[in-house]
Every structure is written in structure tokens, then in C-alpha cells.
Amino acid sequence: MSQFVHEIVVGEKHEGSYTLELINMLGKGAQRVIVKAHGRNISKAVYVTESVRRLTGDKIGYGKIKIYSTEVGELKEEKSVPVIEIEVINLGVKPQS
Amino acid sequence: MSQFVHEIVVGEKHEGSYTLELINMLGKGAQRVIVKAHGRNISKAVYVTESVRRLTGDKIGYGKIKIYSTEVGELKEEKSVPVIEIEVINLGVKPQS
Questions:
Q1: Does A11 fall in a domain?
Q2: For residues B57 and B92, what is the distance between their CA atoms, to the nearest angstrom?
């Protein structure tokens, strides 16, 4: 068991890839995982955490959920992009065989 | 000023339409507005609340942010779809002229 805060950044890969990554982290004993996404990937992050909740039989809960913005792009051409950080709390996810 | 909880459901319309709706509600004195979205519209909801935060000069804050799933579709063909509910708190948005 680790008290270290793990992070998954949900990007362009398929949803299932992040779902598996999150289940594996929790199954290995991570107590908290921050699932983070920018812009159009925010919906995907929520699909991922809800899939993991269903697949593990409600063995995760939500901690703090943060919304804020960050600047991306070239100097003087920065664009503000929203970010979500979802704190996923391990309520007893079993190790995957 | 109203203590009633207002709700905006972010759907298929353009982001700007919901941004305007939210600014108007807050400008008219709504103390709290729940911004709700399903599935692929979740990202759009976060774009909307962050746009309103910027446009109003940080005159909104976030209250409780909830994530859960709901079943949609025909009987025996239901599909689970994630939902977000973002509680937006009015920190002094001025009425729009």
C-alpha cells in the first residue's frame, strides 16, 4: 500500500486504455489516483472513472473534484483550456489476476 | 435575489448559448446554478463554467461537483451514461445591460 498520489492524464488514447491503467493502479494498492484531463478529453476522463466504478462493483469513491483553466500554445497565441482533476479513492479494489 | 436552485442542462446547442444563459441567470441574482451534462457534453459544460468565470472576472466559484451514471435508452437496451453536476456559486456577477 502506498500513500503516494498517483496520476493518470487522459489524452488521445482510447478510453479502455485509461480504464485498464486505473484498475491496475488501484489493484496494486494505490490509495488515491488523480485522473486529469484537458479540453475535449474531460468527458473521456469521466467515462473512465465511471467505468472503473462499475467494473469494480463500487469499490471506488470520489474525493475532491477540481475544475480550473490552463494556458496552452505558443507565446502571444496562448489559449485558455479547461482542466478537470478527479480524485479517485480506493475502497478495496482487488488485484487483477 | 433567489435561494431557489437553478439548473442548466448542457446539450447539443453551441457552448456560447449556455455561457450566455448562465451569465444571465447569475446577473439576475441566482445564488447557485447547477450546470448538468451527460456523456460527450460533459467537456462542454466545463468549457461553459470556465468561460463564465473568465468573462465575469472570477465572480463565480465552485461548490459541490458530482459525478455519477444514469441509464438511457429503450427497455432491455439501456446504456449507462456518465453525468456531471457542477454547482456554480455567484460571488457577485453584475446584471448584464
A1: yes
A2: 10
Cell numbers that stand for B32 in this block: 447557485
Nearest chain B residue to A42, by CA? B43
Is position A96 within any domain? no
ipTM attached to this prediction? 0.91
Query: What residue numbers bound the domain in which A68 lies?
Result: 6-90
Calpha distance A97→B57 (Å, rounded): 51
Alpha-carbon gap, residue B40 to B63, rounded angstroms: 22
Q: Is A88 within 8 Å of chain B by CB?
A: no
User: Are B22 and B48 contacting, i.e. CB atoms less than 8 angstroms apart?
Assistant: yes
- A10-56 pLDDT tens trace: 999 999 999 999 999 999 999 999 999 999 999 999 999 999 999 99
